[in-house]
Write a structure and sequence with these properties.
The complex is a heterodimer of chains A (about 110) and B (about 110). Chain A is mainly β. Chain A contains no helices and eleven strands. In chain A, the strands form two sheets. In chain A, strands 2, 4, 5, 9, 10 and 11 form a six-stranded mixed β-sheet that branches. A five-stranded antiparallel β-sheet of chain A has the order 1-3-8-7-6, with no helix packed on it. Chain B is mainly β and about 110 residues long. The chains are: A mainly beta (about 110), B mainly beta (about 110). The interface of A and B includes residues 32, 41, 91 and 97 of A.
Amino acid sequence: SQKIEQNSEALNIQEGKTATLTCNYTNYSPAYLQWYRQDPGRGPVFLLLIRENEKEKRKERLKVTFDTTLKQSLFHITASQPADSATYLCALGRSSNTGKLIFGQGTTLQVKP
Amino acid sequence: EAEVAQSPRYKITEKSQAVAFWCDPISGHATLYWYRQILGQGPELLVQFQDESVVDDSQLPKDRFSAERLKGVDSTLKIQPAELGDSAMYLCASSLGTDHEQYFGPGTRLTVT
């Protein structure tokens, strides 16, 4: 069955450093991948979308890569700040008439001042 | 900035009781999703609407859950009867269409006692 794996352990980094989060998947061929941020007790917030024919996407301090051969996406936050502390979810989707997203379990990032 | 509205934010109910959640998507968004999120896990799709039609309810426990979007705008998710295992966050999201980013509401935290 299809499986999405994100680092289950929290990632703790120092302010100013680059945070790198990993999303691996098996038994799935996504057409695109999305990253969301979720704060405790709140709904996820969309950050970035990258399609299968794109290798890299950037938005301000965020960068996401997508390697369909390795079946992996990396999400980077450069010059991290304590306000970046949250849970980050990756979600995979196929182009179809439903566009259903399959979410990973999320990785919690803690940025210390 | 337009937001997805959900109510109630919190609901405590006894098992075997009925419970209902309401969602008002962003104006103009044809696609509406209901997700269930258990603590420590990613959101899992329960049902997806395109306008007033259900396009995916494969993970909806249809013996006790029902969802409707009668006029293709707001939507209601109902559980009857509630079970202890239904305790979770219920999230509503909307998007312009499939393969687009999804906008989530604040969620309804359900506790079944």
